[in-house]
C-alpha cells in the first residue's frame, strides 16, 4: 500500500490550548504505532512575560525560534 501523508496546521489565539492539543494527539498516535514527524513551537516566559518562542521537533530537538531583548 502506498504511504499516505497527512499535514495538519493548528491555529488560534494565545492560550487556547493549541500546543497541548498537538502534544496529546501526537502521543495518542504514537501509542497506536502511527509514525509522526514534525515540529511545534512553545512560548518562553521570563518574570511572567513572554520573552520568545522555541521550536521543538517530535524527535526531541529544541532550538530558539525568537527572543525579545
Automatic annotation (TrEMBL):
Q: Which GO terms describe its molecular function?
A: ATP binding; ribonucleoside triphosphate phosphatase activity
SUPFAM superfamilies, per the entry? P-loop containing nucleoside triphosphate hydrolases
Alphabetical keyword list = ATP-binding, Hydrolase, Nucleotide-binding
What superkingdom heads the lineage?
Eukaryota
Show the InterPro entries listed in the entry.
Answer: Nuc-triphosphatase_THEP1, P-loop_NTPase
- Record's keyword annotation contains Transmembrane: no
* Protein's recorded name: Cancer-related nucleoside-triphosphatase
Amino acid at each position: 500500500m502506498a504511504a499516505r501523508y497527512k499535514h495538519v496546521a493548528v491555529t488560534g489565539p494565545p492560550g487556547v490550548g493549541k500546543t497541548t492539543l498537538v502534544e496529546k494527539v501526537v502521543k495518542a498516535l504514537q501509542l497506536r504505532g502511527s509514525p509522526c514527524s514534525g515540529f511545534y513551537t512553545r512560548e518562553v516566559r521570563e518574570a511572567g512575560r513572554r520573552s520568545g518562542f522555541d521550536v521543538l521537533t517530535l524527535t526531541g530537538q529544541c532550538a530558539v525560534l525568537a527572543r525579545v531583548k
